[in-house]
Specification:
Number of domains: 1
Structural class: alpha+beta
Shape: globular
Radius of gyration: 25 Å
Largest sheet: 9 strands, antiparallel
Strand content: 25-35%
Number of helices: 4
CATH architecture: Beta Barrel
CATH class: Mainly Beta
Order of helices and strands: HEEEEEHEEEHEH
Amino acid sequence: MKKLIALIMFAFLLFGCSPRTLIVEEPSKRESPYTYTHKTDWWLLWENEEGKNFIDLNSIRYSSGGKVEVWLKGTVTNKGKDTERSIRKQMGVSTKGLENLSYRIGLFEVDCSNRTTRIVENFNYDEKGNLIDDPVDYMWTRAWRDKWQYIPPGTKIWHLYKYLCQ
């Protein structure tokens, strides 16, 4: 009888007290100064009258030598288009296609060791999500591909640098 009671107690402790479902705790999340946009996988970095800029946190890739690659997305308002048009005119660059520009997606590289950044790729899209084939922007990106720019303290890019590198 004692063996039967011991067996029942063992079975109860083994199966009766164990949880029937696996409980998985949510992993702790890194505190972020950015606002999550629930409609997409992009996190809001900053917003002004010319548009909104987002970061894809899943795209952050750290490489050797203290460099980080990250995809950024920027929506463009009418004021943003006007500013871009003005800059292009001053530079003698075509403004063709700006009327259809809705947003950009670009791959940026940040050199944490030297506090510099550069554009690796840049793609422009219209409101329907169609790629705007803009050879001017393609050439512009290629011209700046190897041009590292210093990141001035206190700028929006500075805050991105601090988030990615520190």
